[in-house]
Design goal:
Chains A, B: Keywords: DNA-binding, Transcription, Transcription regulation. Chains A, B: It comes from Sinorhizobium kostiense. Chains A, B: This is AcrR family transcriptional regulator. The structure is a homodimer. By secondary structure, chain A is mainly alpha-helical. Chain A folds into 2 domains: 46 residues, Arc Repressor Mutant, subunit A (Orthogonal Bundle), CATH 1.10.10; 130 residues, Tetracycline Repressor, domain 2. The first copy, chain A, contains 9 helices and no strands. In chain A, helix 1 crosses helix 2. The longest helix of chain A has 25 residues. Chain A starts with 14 loop residues before the first helix and ends in a 7-residue tail after the last helix. The N terminus of chain A is likely disordered. Chain B binds a DNA duplex through helix 3.
Amino acid sequence: MSKISSNPVGHGSTDVRDRILETASKLFYKQGVRAVGVDLVVDKAGVAKTSLYRHFGTKDDLIAAFLEREDQDFWGQWDRVAAKYEHDARAELDAHLGWIGERVGRPNYRGCPQINVAAEFPEADHPARKVAETHKREMRRRLKAIAERLDVAVPDELAGQLSVLVNGAFVSSQIFEPGEATPLLRHAAEALISAGRSSNRIDL
Amino acid sequence: MSKISSNPVGHGSTDVRDRILETASKLFYKQGVRAVGVDLVVDKAGVAKTSLYRHFGTKDDLIAAFLEREDQDFWGQWDRVAAKYEHDARAELDAHLGWIGERVGRPNYRGCPQINVAAEFPEADHPARKVAETHKREMRRRLKAIAERLDVAVPDELAGQLSVLVNGAFVSSQIFEPGEATPLLRHAAEALISAGRSSNRIDL
DNA sequence: GTGAGAACAGACAGGTCTGTAGCACTGGAG
DNA sequence: CTCCAGTGCTACAGACCTGTCTGTTCTCAC
């Protein structure tokens, strides 16, 4: 279908869809997905409920779209940072832990959206859960790619440890002192990498 | 019916209260708190709704009681293990990572209840949130007590790192291979402790 | 036996939720 | 100018939710 023009507030512009998704994302993240009804979303977005259901057939689909959006934002930030350290995996990792630690320490930080939504929807076949699971596996995959450039004995284990560390940071914001997260994560990563290099990994 | 020898406690027996709390705990953990209505709880527990509201004034109170129960179970297990290693902090930590890793790998593991509920109820004044926050801080407090027996330069930082690790394990069960969690956690703890002992911690 | 407390059973009130339907408006394409 | 897809607005259906109320039964204590 056309929908190509998409130019400013024209006709079939995607303006309305974007506004719905952005509004829903903010509300979902801040208040929790189940706590936010579609009526609230359409009210805050200033659109008609009909429009919401035309662009997203179901609330569940809207939730999945929310997570996909967050996923894209997250990896967008990741890629932007990664691009600066193409030749230095160690520096790249530190940089990631830097912005992640900073993000975790923000005043209104409410945890990782993927994890939060997975906690709210245990049903394995929920569309949003698939996005969340893909997100977590992608995290480990990317960390493994970094670990493989770090000259450690078992890159996959280091990747697993770093994944746990990062996921842990996402859910531990409550226990951090201000500004504590990033150095804590960096020191931990340093320790894990050092241990992975020294070859005392012969035992089980 | 029988009500099996409702016996001694006879009248004000806590039998009903326990049954409600246990049933609710299972359902809440498995399906999520918001997804489970009180009607389902009373039905599965085989009690009258009046009884639920007599013992727990509110669903929110029932949720808080659920988390308190989980909290007690968790620290009960912790204490049982800790008692075996009173004189060996290193072995105690390994033992904790052992049962935590095992628990995380169970087939129906659905994450830490405290974290899940906190994700479902962002409102800071929700009674269940207070239980959850207390739980997380208690975790760091206990890990700090262990770290202080481990001859590391900055026990508080190690405690923070171990807390992140444990919380991370709770939310990362999806990315673990079967049986992977415990050794991964133990190797990580080993690395963190080693790094905390070597005195290259003079920098910031 | 009698009264009190606890539990059961079921209906109900009042609200919220998702999702749908009907009708009017608008602005660009032909 | 005339279509017409996209949008807004309102009302509604049907389900579900929390919490309350009434009425009945059971068991213990006295």
